[in-house]
Amino acid sequence: MKLKLLSPSSKVWTPRHWLSCALPFTIFILILLFYLTGEKRQDELTGCGFTAQLCVPERSLTSQEEPGQKSGEIHCLGPDKLPGQMVRPFKESLATEGDLQMPQFLNGWRKLVMLLDPLGTLFTFATQEASEKISTLKSYSRGPHSNHYQTFSAMAEWEQDPFKYKSGLQTLVLLHRALHWAQLCLDGIARVHNADMGVLCGDAYQRVLGPFHPWLIRKAASLAFLAFPRRSKLLAVVCPGANEQEAQEALAQASDMLEAVYNRTQGLLAERGILTHGVTMLPTGGR
């Protein structure tokens, strides 16, 4: 009996062979799509071309004061600046003690998306998810039952089953988690000196959002955090035209407002047991 040897070019492709080749290719495609999805939205919002992580506006951090700026006023929190435009509706969402005004909350989120998008594709990835949830809640607030979606309390009373598919409350929980990650990351950029921002924001991602994302997404995010921009560049994008200290102060105040909104929402969700079906996140107080 003769045994016929296969030539080197005649490989037998077992399932293991296919898996060993397909998995790296899948990760590569995922990362490629991950970066490309941010290109179009970055161009629309900032007018910058595609970059791997960061789109820095033409004006960087300076100490120049713009015409009409009041002495002592934080440059970036003015009514014509994006951080200020974000802080105001979030503050208004807390106007009623023990409740959350939904239209103002969603307006604040819309500005937060605009603020985060130019910071890089990692933020774009998170804000694309958030934008879908914002659109869902806005459609409820403008639909036939809009009067039930003006405040958190009204929404909670209206929705008998908060865990039904795409209910308002469950959609709010998803925005709540994303807000937590954005607040932790922005707070680190504002207050933590001499630290790797990629490590800081990456740890916050793995703790807050990672448990709810597929394994491939988590791994792709981990790789992208390795190329995270330096702190000074992030501050330049958040607060263009201001010096670094002023940018830090503005971002710290913005982070404090996000924390207040997060903690109010956390308490409201916890009171109704809505967080018991997922990972319960504690208030962020106490740095």
Automatic annotation (TrEMBL):
Keywords: Membrane, Transmembrane, Transmembrane helix. The chain crosses the membrane at residues 17-36. One of its GO terms (cellular component) is cytosol. GO terms for biological process: ceramide transport; intermembrane lipid transfer; negative regulation of interleukin-1 beta production. Residues 101-239 form the Glycolipid transfer protein domain. GO terms for molecular function: ceramide 1-phosphate binding; ceramide 1-phosphate transfer activity. It holds the Pfam family GLTP. Coiled coil: none annotated. Belongs to the GLTP family. This is Glycolipid transfer protein domain containing 2. It comes from Monodelphis domestica.
